[in-house]
Amino acid sequence: MNKNKYVIVGESDSRRVQLFKDAVVERGEDEPRVVSFLDLISGTKRLESVIESGDVVRIESPGKDFEVERALLRLGIQSGSLTHQELESLCFDRGLILPQSQWYRGWCSVLGTISEQLRKSRPHILMNSPEEIAILFDKQKCQEMLVSQGVRMPAALGVASDFDNLLELMNEHNCKRVFLKPAHGSSASGIVAYEFSGDKHKAISTVELVDSDGRLKLYNSRKVRSYSSYEQVKTLVDALCAHNVFVQKWYPKANIGGKVFDLRVVVVNGKSRHVVVRESKTPFTNLHLLNARGQLSVVQDALGADRCAAVLATAEKAAHVFPNCLYVGVDVLISSDFRNHAVAEVNAFGDLLPGVLCDGISTYAAELNAVNDFGAKLSGAIYV
Question: Which of 33, 122, 222, 282 is the most interior residue, by most CB within 10 Å?
Fold first, then answer.
């Protein structure tokens, strides 16, 4: 086995970075060098001064590091944003939802810096493309690309500007149940499952509304809340729409044992590998919300061999839309009658599945096994 040397763009104290470093060292390869986002943003380090010929470069999630988040918000400042002065006085407040469109502009700026510095670096293998990561963090653009390539997804209603506009979109599409997703959010941040019938409204969300000295603040929470009054729902949706909310038709999920579920499929170098069943008593199946992992064998029995194969093929089709990413996590919804399925999202950093093995190896080990073949296959796109 030829040994590779790795460079990670990320934060050294990140769990993701540490797990990947551990996977590399377990193979008997040198511990990866880490270049922090803060160093890139400040100009303290440049990738062309770090990357050696033949290195493998991995861009990791910026995670929830407060200083990184604040630095990204600084880069994303424009009219109507949090100002430099406001950001300097900003203190860590666990769960507080900060301006996500501003964060995304900053994130795209950093990804652009990474791309520029990679072009000036020695020949290397890039595990995931900055340009494609940027698209994967834009739910509307991502859906448009996937659907254009024939990937089945829940119908998109567009971006809602406020609650009244949301109702207009729903009436226009003759739709009574939707999911609202901040276009640049992740990990169920700011997500809402909303439905109405006549004058009855119901919104289920991970968001907690807090009145702080007359100012409304939104907090992400592991506790899923239900809002049932018109006033509460309107307040919630209006506040979230300031974060560029993307609306999808509600796709009724399959149910086993009184819990709905979906599947996280990690596709590595074009091949569906690790699959996790995420089950919940609420509409949201994200595992960090204290939901359980279901039994894959039970789902496989319920679907049957042909439909299981079709699900994996769909995940691979979705991953193919992003050919310059070695790995992606694809969230697949199974219909309530088990006859159909659709892709909910594709995640740039969807490979964090500790303890989940396929063919006896982890997601990170699978990526390490595939990286050289990936580099050879797409040498024109990822060797620079």
Answer: 282
Pick the CATH number of 253-361 from 3.30.420.140, 3.50.50.60, 3.40.50.720, 3.30.470.20: 3.30.470.20
Q: Which amino acid is at 268?
A: V
CA distance 325 to 374: 9
Neighbouring C-beta atoms of residue 176, cutoff 10 Å: 14
CB burial readout 293-305, b (16+ within 10 A) else e: ebeeeebeeebee
Q: Helix, strand, or coil here: 205?
A: strand
> Model's pTM, two decimal places?
0.94
Retrieve residue 90's tokens: 């900003």
> What are the φ/ψ torsions at residue 235 (nearest 5 degrees)?
-60, -45
The b-or-e profile of 330-368 (16+ CB within 10 A means b, else e) is bbbbbeeeeeebbbbbbbbbbbbbeebebeeebbbbbbb
Q: Per-residue confidence at 381, pLDDT binned at 50, 70, 90?
A: very low
